[in-house]
Automatic annotation (TrEMBL):
It comes from Psychrobacillus vulpis. The lineage of its organism: Bacteria, Bacillati, Bacillota, Bacilli, Bacillales. Pfam families: LVIVD. This is YncE family protein. InterPro entries: Host-pathogen_enzymatic-act, LVIVD, WD40/YVTN_repeat-like_dom_sf.
Length: 283
């Protein structure tokens, strides 16, 4: 979610951005009623090539161009239903970028073919500056990223693990451990709410659930079935899960975060291999 604050007297609305991998677009849904999304637009047809991941900081949206371009596109979402492309970056640094995460003024981008995570300074959010990379020797086809505090998780889809890094110094991550517990198969997307980490597990058609009260020692506490699962996003007590081959997004109530309850799904006829998702809170 973007870094804007919470609802003010209930006047804010929520939007969900969903990458449409096969159509080279990003779909926009109003999720003010989180279990009844309403499509309000799309963008990117002229700019995107196999888009997967998204990340938001304030009114700047980043979208990875996974295959042909190996770049990240930058959009101004001051008008959130009519994003305006303002640049791109990563050419020459990235190879199959598939995951994004932001902490402060630092943006991380997974580079699958390089087995690294690239690090960018986004003090100027529309002009990222590469400041380093990490993971060479530890990572194997890194896919997704998630951050809580000074801990970063990186899904290692080539090794069926999730790597754990300390990012107290955000430009010099230090590896501290990894986990699997025998339940991960091609782990991809990661999302965190409170002390719960969800890992999409397309190799087993599940989402794995971990308690990260101790952020460097996750404990598996459950799973739920999700065929062809890919990206995930959370707002409040609602979780969205992209079921990519079925071209739908499933909706779960996570009031009890270890026991998600399905409450619906949607498509509107416009999703074609939905992949990554991001929630934006606006007035």
């Amino acid at each position: 979610m973007n870094k804007n604050g919470g609802d003010i007297l209930g006047l804010r609305r929520r939007l969900l951005y969903i990458t449409n991998f096969a159509d080279n677009t990003v779909e926009i849904y109003n999720i003010t009623n989180p279990i009844a999304p309403v499509r309000v637009g799309e963008f990117g047809a002229e700019d995107l090539s196999d888009p997967i991941a998204l990340a938001i900081t304030d009114t700047t949206l980043y979208v990875t161009n996974f295959a042909d371009n190996n770049t990240v596109e930058i959009y101004d979402i001051s008008n959130p239903t009519a994003p305006v492309r303002v640049g791109e970056f990563g050419a020459g640094d990235l190879m199959l970028p598939s995951g994004l995460a932001i902490t402060g003024t630092t943006l991380y981008v997974t580079s699958q073919d390089n087995n690294t995570v690239e690090i960018y300074d986004i003090t100027n959010p529309i002009a990222p500056v590469r400041v380093g990379e990490f993971g060479a020797g530890d990572l194997s086809v890194p896919a997704g990223l998630a951050i809580t505090g000074t801990t970063m998780y990186v899904s290692n889809s080539g090794d069926n693990t999730v790597e754990i890094y300390n990012i107290t110094n955000p430009t010099a991550p230090v590896r501290v451990d990894q986990f699997n517990e025998g339940n991960l198969d091609d782990p991809f997307s990661l999302v965190i709410i409170g002390n719960t980490l969800y890992v999409s597990n397309p190799g087993n058609d599940t989402v794995e659930i971990y308690d990260i009260t101790n952020s460097t020692a996750p404990v598996r506490v459950g799973e739920f079935n999700a065929n062809d699962v890919f990206g995930m996003a959370i707002t409040g007590t609602t979780m969205y899960v992209a079921i990519t081959l079925a071209n739908i997004v499933q909706i779960y109530d996570i009031t009890n975060p270890t026991v998600p309850v399905p409450v619906g799904q949607f498509n509107s006829g416009n999703l074609n291999r939905p992949s990554g998702m991001a929630v934006f809170l606006t007035i």
